[in-house]
Design goal:
single chain; 699 residues; OB fold (Dihydrolipoamide Acetyltransferase, E2P); 4 domains; seven-stranded mixed β-sheet; seven-stranded parallel β-sheet; 40% helix; globular; binds adenosine-5'-diphosphate; binds magnesium ion
Length: 699
Amino acid sequence: MIDLSTDIKFLPGVGPKKAELLGNEAGIFTYEDLLYYFPYKYVDRSKFYTVRELNPNMPYVQVKGKLTSLKTVGSGRHARLTATFSDGTGTMELVWFKGHKYIKDSLDPKAEYIIFGKPSIFNGMINVVHPEMDKVDPAKSVIRSGLQAFYNTTEKMKKGYLNSRGILKLMQNLFKLLQRETIPETMPAPLTKRLKLINLNDALRTAHFPDNTKHLEKAQFRLKFEELFYLQLNILRIKNQRKLAVKGHIFKVVGDNLNTFYKNNIPFELTNAQKKVIREIRQDMGSGKQMNRLLQGDVGSGKTLVALMVMLIAVDNNYQAALMAPTEILANQHLETISEMLKGINVSIDLLTGSTKKSKREELHEKLRNGELNILIGTHALIEDIVKFHNLGLVIIDEQHRFGVAQRAKLWKKNLHPPHVLVMTATPIPRTLAMTVYGDLDVSVIDELPPGRKPIKTVHYFHNKRNNLNRFLRSELEKGRQIYVVYPLIKESEKMDFKNLNEGYEYMQKAFPEYTTTMVHGKMKTSEKDEAMQEFVSGRSQILVSTTVIEVGVNVPNASVMVIESAERFGLSQLHQLRGRVGRGADQSYCILMTDYKMSEETRKRMNIMTATTDGFEIAEADMKLRGPGDLEGTQQSGLPFSLRIASLSRDSQLLQYARKIAEDILDDDPVLEKPESIMLKKQVAKLTSRKMNWSMIS
Ligand code: ADP
Ligand code: MG
């Protein structure tokens, strides 16, 4: 019996150098890791082409023929080895830029070869660069029929002779060792039988050495299902476990503060969606279990009001509440809005950010410890270890995609009993991703905007239409509206961006001399930033030129136009967030996307989606399709607990939902996998969790 946890360096063909590369570059440390290193594509090697048929548009092809000449061209660094190769229908050229001597020595000029590679055209002749060469010699034949697997490798791996073919060779060596063995099953037999899944042994062999597409599909289905199934089983089991184990603070009463607020202070009728989510949250907080809830609501749906009311419930039950925002501007704004709404109500509330002065800070710390302060609003500063609460009962995290997993985990430790946690986000997360990254949270959705909002009109202009744009902006300004102009600011090209921002600021000042233009960017001192922001919020300035610091949360209902400069440089979800800064009042609002005339295909798609819909979820789905889940804004930090090895959240969303359903059914019967028939499931889940990080911290 071969031990699959054997160090990869013991595999024939590996050795210490390659072992190090495999580990560092591809995370392959053991035989098993190699088994689960799946190809990213397959190429059909059952078909042969003739030289005459080849054209440069073809993907990988194979041709059988003979070498007719072999020579080194050029010298020094530019030297290359070329061979002519013909099969009777025509002649082509083979080219090597590296490893000449080795290749020259290993080629047999009289033998017949099967060459495999990507045809291109050079000097009017078909050529293949660095082809794979297999001598036609049945005794030594490698793979020359069926589908050939292609593996991802890095530059460093390629230099160390571990290109795709190198990995394939290792895979062959591994399967040679495993020839007489059956790779042990990892899913319970009743389950594979019921779901008609092929066994693991066959699935793994087929995934690396498929004989045809039909088998390959079955193997991929089994392996992807398993990966997604255990992922979901684990997330849901943790959720169950926590519900059973962790006691929550019980908020029984609906008390004076909330009642007074509701009677005297509430500025408008709650929407039905707001009522619904407040009910859901109240139920959680009264249940005796600790709440872990995700509140999704598109920009402008009124989450702040929900947060405020929920915090009042905590205060009415003699607990403290904290509201954490991603930026100082936003924390400030929350403090203002909330203080304003709480006028005349006896609740003490304060602000803690990175720029809170030391003396003020010490005073705050004291008031938090002795319970004098009821509600604390702040930024990251509020989760620093030094901040201790008297009895923190509720934490609300606004726009959480800015907060990493580790930061959220810190909150857990703030009390002996962890506080109730409400995570609010306007960044719509595709369903599949939400199920995975926040799969152990309960979800509430505000699926309705406050009444009287008109959908924002979005248009896309090229830079050369600036005169038209200005005419339009002037007409809006004349109506008394305000305008945002946003420029990208991305680290790598900071200098350039600053130049654009400053020029944009000057340009607007010149173009609209009778109005006041202000500028805000992240490099300004907080006080300057706040001052400039305040100019705009108060209406003293009508045009705000800024970077994305205004992206999240800022609320100026009188602003009706959002101009996004160099819109091609923003991702979809960011564009959507920015657009959400307007359309907050009763007036018709507009979003104008400015791009260069020359656009990439992807930019064009993004602009089309933005002009076609204002539905955040639709946009999030489109974003994931365009960029893949790994690149989605924020998911890097909030991150998947580990990377998937074969399944894909964007391509396999149906399978994910199916896998989750199966996992749910199993846990309905056995919530934390204690029954004897769950032994194997439990073991696999444990193996999964040991692989990377502590899952219970993803809340
Ligand atoms: P977000 O969900 O993006 O955080 P906000 O809480 O900032 O949204 O609310 C957006 C705007 O809608 C604010 O001006 C707020 O006062 C207003 N608003 C919130 N709830 C209601 C409501 N029920 N009716 C009318 N306006 C509301
Ligand atoms: Mg908000």
